[in-house]
Design a protein that fits this description.
Elements: H1 2-17, E1 20-24, E2 35-39, H2 46-54, E3 59-64, H3 71-79, E4 82-85, H4 91-109, E5 113-115, H5 134-144, E6 153-161, E7 170-175, E8 179-180, H6 185-190, H7 192-208, H8 220-232, E9 242-243, H9 247-261, H10 264-283, H11 302-329
Parallel strand pairs: 1-7, 1-9, 2-5, 2-6, 3-4, 3-5
Antiparallel strand pairs: 6-7, 6-8
Helix pairs in contact: 1-2, 1-11, 4-5, 8-9
Length: 330
């Protein structure tokens, strides 16, 4: 009951907060049965909310253990389908994690969906971090309770924000082909450590297909800037809040690949040109998107902007209140 009500509020809030979402692969989630979703983690608050709004089935996900500050808060967050996970700080947190993973196993055995962020912590830079193996142990331990007769599809997912820290941004969400646990059970029974390592590498490559992944962290700023310029000329604009296309993701990945494979001299030249261009824009108090023909629209559309002034306070409150509450709790 509470979960459904919160999902409705978040749907309204996210529709007002984000300009549009490009999403594909929702059909990869079966209508019933256990599922583990493996997304990257670009936003600590929004990632789970976006997936919860897009996916019809109820979701359960892990959250930082230090948010569960009291019994009351723990019970409340549990109603939101949140499970605490702690960094190892002694026997107490180890026991608490064991309880949370045991609850997650119960959820999977009942045919539920678990979202697990295998990178561990959130980050706004667009570089996919190495994956932790805890989620794969969770999958094998769950299957073991059914004598390994239970198959659990693990779905790699990518969430990308055009601007992670600003509103009215675009979000790119893609869910890939499921990785079937049953394919790795024989290897796990003979060599668990090697199979966990193999599965984490395979999952990493599968997740990498769903997100733009910058290889060289030193190129993060110029890559983000060049990507914004390219996507401001993106030809697939739509009035629909949800749009099914991978074209935008592929265009962004093409920019990352071009810069990543360029020579050092070319990178420096591009970086210098980008810095000069942004300096000229700042001098004229302009933004790149104002120069794009795709951001020009007929005058009658201003009526929609005026109507948005009325809706803005509602969207602001729906987003600000959960954020302030979360900050207060943590």
């Amino acid at each position: 009951m509470i979960y459904g009500f919160v999902k409705f509020l978040m749907t309204v809030a996210l529709r007002l907060y984000y300009r549009r979402i490009y999403v594909t692969g929702l059909e990869n989630i079966a209508a019933k049965g256990p599922v583990i979703i493996l997304p990257n983690h670009n936003s600590s608050l929004m990632d789970a909310a976006i997936l919860g709004v897009l996916i019809r089935r109820p979701l359960h996900f892990f959250a930082r253990g230090d948010v569960f500050t009291s019994n009351f808060v723990s019970k409340l967050l549990a109603r939101f389908h949140m499970l605490p996970v702690h960094h190892h700080e002694g026997r107490k947190t180890l026991d608490q994690n064991t309880q949370s993973f045991s609850k997650a196993e119960d959820i999977l055995l009942k045919g539920g969906i678990i979202i697990f962020f295998p990178e561990g912590s959130s980050h706004i830079d667009k570089q996919l971090k190495p994956l932790r193996k805890g989620v794969f142990r969770l999958a094998f331990n769950t299957a073991a309770r059914k004598n390994y007769a239970l198959d659990i599809p693990m779905i790699p997912a990518g969430i990308t924000y055009s601007k992670p820290t600003t509103w009215r941004a675009d979000v790119i969400v893609h869910l890939g082909t499921p990785i079937l646990l049953s394919d790795y059970i024989p290897g796990y029974l003979s060599n668990p450590a090697a199979t966990l390592l193999q599965l984490s590498k395979i999952a990493y490559k599968a997740m990498e297909l769903q997100v733009p992944n910058i290889i060289d962290a030193s190129l993060n700023d110029v890559t983000a800037g060049c990507t914004e310029i390219v996507l401001n000329d993106f030809s697939y604009h739509t009035a629909h809040w949800q749009s099914a296309t991978r074209k935008r993701l592929e265009q962004e990945k093409a920019v990352y690949h071009s810069l990543g494979s360029a020579s050092q001299h070319t990178r420096e030249k591009i970086s210098t040109t980008y810095q000069r261009y942004t300096a000229l824009l700042n001098e004229s108090d302009l933004k790149d998107k104002t120069l794009s023909p795709y951001f020009h629209f007929p005058g009658w559309n201003y009526l929609f902007l005026l109507s948005g002034i009325i809706l803005f306070p509602i969207g602001f409150l729906l987003n600000a209140l959960p954020l302030l509450v979360a900050r207060k709790i943590s």
